[in-house]
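About this split. The held-out portion is used to measure sequence recovery: a designer receives only the structure tokens and must propose an amino acid at every position. Recovery is the fraction of positions where the proposal matches the reference. Here is one held-out target exactly as it appears in the evaluation file.
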């Protein structure tokens, strides 16, 4: 994996990580095809995305009508991405595609190099409000998707078809209050 690719991937992951916040139900549920996804990761990414927006200097009252619209967009974006990642993980498991801890460590080391070393990398994570564990989880999904497509075990269109056909149960964010997925999401 080239330094340029790692840098682009890291920037994409940072951008994604800075993307949404949700309101929780009593017992929030989030699953794809019967397999649970992390509600905590969803909330963390939403909060990170809100902070990212605020760091741009924009003044936002998250309780106002415009703030609520922006929040709904963030929440919808995060839900879409996590559903996509859940499907990618399922497809990878079905096809025997794995990311070993050594693979992930190698990709993390390459990301550190791309950002100028471990200290600069950690500073960038901190500045973006992303925990190393969150970055690692998102990087793992990107690596899985890359391996699926590079090995020819799943094309991008096959992945998107699987995402579109996935059975999603979500009672978080815009899908709280018995609003079904994907109808609960704001338009892209």
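Reference sequence for scoring:
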């Amino acid at each position: 994996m080239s330094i340029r690719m790692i840098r682009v991937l890291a920037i994409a992951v940072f951008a994604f990580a800075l993307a949404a916040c949700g309101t929780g139900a009593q017992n929030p549920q989030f699953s794809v095809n019967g397999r649970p996804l992390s509600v905590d990761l969803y909330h963390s990414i939403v909060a990170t995305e809100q902070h990212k927006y605020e760091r741009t200097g924009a003044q936002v009252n998250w309780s106002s009508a415009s703030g609520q619209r922006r929040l709904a967009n963030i929440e919808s974006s995060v839900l879409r991405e996590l559903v996509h990642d859940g499907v990618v993980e399922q497809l990878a498991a079905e096809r025997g595609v794995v990311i070993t801890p050594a693979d992930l460590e190698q990709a993390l080391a390459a990301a550190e190099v791309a950002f100028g070393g471990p200290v600069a990398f950690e500073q960038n994570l901190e500045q973006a409000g992303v925990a190393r564990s969150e970055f690692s989880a998102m990087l793992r999904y990107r690596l899985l998707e890359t391996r699926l497509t590079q090995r020819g075990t799943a094309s991008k269109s096959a992945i998107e078809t699987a995402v579109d056909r996935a059975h999603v149960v979500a009672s978080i964010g815009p899908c709280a209050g018995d609003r079904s997925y994907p109808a609960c999401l704001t338009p892209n």
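Annotator remark: Strands lie at 30-32, 35-36, 168-170.
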